[in-house]
């Protein structure tokens, strides 16, 4: 019979630690609600996977590498079967150090000692989940929001078509829910100086208040923000500067985060509550190391975008070589005349449910592309898994400029990503 284990460990650093997610804001001034690492272990009795979700903004490749090595060394659990995911929380600890000008270009501002302590706690969550496994069955459901809670921040008139996915694991002691949606954890604005897990934290709380356990994993939300306006308006009719301020800078509140988190939780719960659970009869996983070029690519062949991309990549690699900013912790390299990054993709299968771990902030439209290529019906995509490589816009969006294109470090993913991920999943 299949087994499922669950664990949660608080990872909130001390008040006064650096916050990640927004420029112009550095040190935290308090804690509104704790940050957590939540771990879920699923096994069919032969093979198992370990999924760890963290209330963090992201991490360079070496952080998940260290976490997985620590878990594997202490337990013998396969390194290749571990997902370490960041929900892209903009109200958490700064795990990368690239959200301020100094840390990005001039000096090492990453609080590395605190990061190592958090890594140990994340690993502990995984180890505890492995030890806590109990007999379980599984059920899956998928639904869509029936009101506007998300918006395509690049093209507000483009529909966000990502479902609310939910897996329910039924154990004798309690039910455990894995919920997946695709939306930036940016309800709370840059003026917030309190640590918080934003709307995903409230989603988990909704289940906990009812005696259940839960874990949230974020989907490909590179171009998806929470919709925080009090009513629906035609944003495209507004001047661009006003439109972008409403989308990127609207001051959400903790009450907004609660409203959205509770809404997603209730939708997920209701979607799966009447689905009959089945035995966990098959679990498998695959992981693929990648060495990707950092060269520019665009279907639109934008000269200005290529020039800026090359300038930024060369600057980052120079900073790393000189040991100045926090890019020294990245897995980007210049060797033998080539600019490249080491990264990975990972996939897992639980019965006929597939999970794809993406190492960057893919735009939400990649869900349909990967689903079509893989021909998988029950598909969950999890961004910022085992790495954080910036944005991956749609090929048709590359060349249009903007913030997301500026921070698209690996355009090759736009060209090859869907095929690589689909092939990995189909081989499960």
Please give the structural blueprint.
Elements: E1 3-10, E2 19-20, E3 30-31, E4 36-43, E5 48-54, H1 62-75, E6 82-86, E7 92-93, H2 101-106, H3 112-131, E8 134-135, E9 137-143, E10 150-152, E11 164-170, E12 175-181, E13 194-195, H4 198-208, E14 213-218, E15 224-226, H5 240-248, H6 254-272, E16 278-279, E17 283-293, H7 303-322, E18 332-335, E19 338-350, E20 353-357, E21 361-362, H8 366-374, E22 378-382, E23 391-392, H9 403-406, H10 412-426
Parallel strand pairs: 3-13, 5-6, 12-14, 20-22, 21-23
Antiparallel strand pairs: 1-4, 1-8, 2-7, 4-5, 9-11, 9-16, 10-15, 11-12, 17-19, 18-19, 19-20
Describe, in plain words, how this protein is organized in 3D.
With 428 residues, this protein is of the alpha+beta class. The protein has a domain at 283-355 and 389-426. The chain is built from ten helices and 23 strands. The strands form seven sheets. It has a five-stranded mixed sheet, covered by helices on one side. A five-stranded mixed sheet has the order 14-12-11-9-16, with helices on one face. Strand 11 (164-170) and strand 12 (175-181) form a beta hairpin. It is globular, with a radius of gyration of 20 Å. It starts with a strand and ends with a helix. 51% of the residues are buried.
